[in-house]
Amino acid sequence: MSENDETQYVIDGGSLLHRIHWQSGLSFGEICQRYIDSVERKYSKAIVVFDGYASGPDTKDATHQRRTKGIIGTKVSFTDRTPFKSKKEIFLANIENKQNFINLLSAKMEEKGIKTKHADADADVLIALTAIESAKTKATVLLGEDTDLLVLLLHHADVTSNSLIFKSGNVSKVNTHIKIWDILKTKLLLGEELCTFLPLIHAISGCDTTSRMFGVSKAATLKKFGEHDFLKTQAQLLCNANANDDVISAGEKTLFPLYIMVLHMKD
C-alpha cells in the first residue's frame, strides 16, 4: 500500500506511551509535547486509543503486574507545569498516575487536532474496531505491538473494505524490525471460517490471560484447526455454549483431540 496524506493511522496508546523517553526535569506538559511532536512528525492523520485504568479490576491485571515486575509507584499529584523528578517506569506503575497522565496527554493532543479515544479498561477491542471502522471509508494503518490486535483485526475485518494494514513493532524508532500484515489478504488466505475461530484459537494456544497447553504451539494449533472440520464444529459448539456444563463439555471435546493430534504430529 502506498501511504500518503489520505491514510488514516490508528495508534495503540499503550504502546506509544512507552516509546518516548522522559527526561528528568522536564515538565509534564513538555513531556506531552514530545509525544505530540512524534505523532505529528510521522502521521498525517492519527487517532490514538488509550487503555483505561480507573474502572476497577481487569482481566489483564496480572499481565500488567508482571510487566511492571511487581513495582507499585507512589501516587503523584501534578499539573502540566509540574517538573518530572521520578523514573518513568516507577511513575507509570501507579495506575492513578498512569490514568492522570493519559488524561493530560489526551487533552493536549486534542488541542493540537490529534483525535483520541479511551477504553474503560483494556483497549484492544476498541483499537481494532476503530481501525476497521476507518477502513470502511479510507486506507488505514494500525500501529501497535500486541498479537491480540492482529487476531481481532482478522476476526472482525470486512474483506470488501479499503486497505487495512497492521504494523507490529516499535512505532517510534526508524531502525527497528517491524512486521507488516495486510489484513484483507491474510484473511482471504486463511479463510472466513478459520478467522471466525481465531480468538478461540488464540486463547487456547496461549495469550495474555490464558496459558497454552504444554508442548502445543500457536502455529500447530492454527494448522490443526485449518485441517480438521471436527475441531471447527467443536469450536462452534464451544462459542455458542451458555451453561457451565456445556462450556466444559465442549471445551474438553475441543482440547483433547487437538492435544492428541499435535502430539501425534511430533512422533
TrEMBL record:
Domain of life where this protein originates: Eukaryota
Protein name: Uncharacterized protein
